[in-house]
Amino acid sequence: MWIFGRKGASGFSASSTAEDVTKGIDATGLTAIVTGASSGIGFETTRVLALHGVHVVMAVRNIESGQKVKENIVSEIPNAKVDVMELDLSSLASVRKFAAEFVSSNLPLNILINNAGVMAPPFTLSKDKIELQFATNHLGHFLLTELLLETMKRTSREQNKEGRIVNVSSEAHRFAYKGIFFDQLNDESSYNPIYAYGQSKLANILHAKELTKHFKENGVNLTANVLHPGSIQTNLLRYHNIINGVVDWIGKYFLKNIPQGAATTCYVALHPQVEGVSGEYFMDSNIAQPNSYAKNAGLAKELWDISLTMVAPYH
Ligand SMILES: NC(=O)c1ccc[n+]([C@@H]2O[C@H](COP(=O)([O-])OP(=O)(O)OC[C@H]3O[C@@H](n4cnc5c(N)ncnc54)[C@H](OP(=O)(O)O)[C@@H]3O)[C@@H](O)[C@H]2O)c1
């Protein structure tokens, strides 16, 4: 239990903060993209990566709030290298535009943190007529990753350094419908907000698993891992006022705070212990076990093929 701070094999526990798990790491010269960097875990991840010298591109849907976050970070860390770029993951056109602008900037890319997420909204279709949680949490990140892969591969070759893709999933993957309901993805009558959230988070795990397979088959010096950050009081519960109110009230006694909530992301993104590790599920900065659907190679391949069809043509 994290409240007891029991350390796992990594030497870190659920009570470790993002600064604890990255202590002493010099990440100067690395470039990262963090999606959903304007609040919660994404904000703290950006701050701590910048603290260690990483040039962070904050990929946010609201440029104004992104700029405010950047100003806060720079006022605390005057030499922080932070840029803000617009990205709405629920729009495939926006993902394409972001990726095209990033690629044409000629920046290297060592770390891609697919962090942004929405949780359990009422049934909504995205601009592309795809259920909002699947669209935002999985499909937008799937396309983003595909469009940035060549840049990541080039960077890893030129710098002779492993590139890392980090998907922020959730223990809620255990509440998915049975696996992924491919035939009913956009069907309002069978929609359950929590199961659909779980489904999108299961997709985050399967995505990293299939990426790992491709990287190994092609001898690419990139890794893809996935994590549950813990239960943290953030804006994620914005669609559920009553639960949010209760969590606000008593959360400080049993939930992680945001610095603890960003720890596993920062650990997986930067820590030397994770060198060469790919396709794993992390929790509390230690390797953990997701459920059997998340380990199903056939399901990972099916999700990959269907996702490719859904984003086609992706160039
Ligand atoms: N908090 C927890 O207990 C918990 C537990 C397990 C997993 N997670 C996962 O952790 C990740 C971060 O969540 P959080 O807790 O930090 O929540 P949060 O504070 O609500 O942050 C979510 C971020 O995602 C962004 N976002 C939402 N929709 C987007 C879109 N269409 N395009 C671009 N960005 C979008 C939000 O932007 P705006 O600020 O503009 O809305 C926000 O910056 C999520 O993937 C979530 O599923 C959280």
UniProtKB/TrEMBL annotation:
Pfam family, one: adh_short
Entry EC number(s): 1.1.1.330
GO MF, any single term: very-long-chain 3-oxoacyl-CoA reductase activity
Keyword Oxidoreductase: yes
Domain of life from the UniProt record: Eukaryota
Protein name, per record: Putative NAD(P)-binding Rossmann-fold superfamily protein
InterPro entries, A to Z: NAD(P)-bd_dom_sf, SDR_fam, TIC32
Keyword set, alphabetical order: Oxidoreductase
Record bears the keyword Protein transport: no
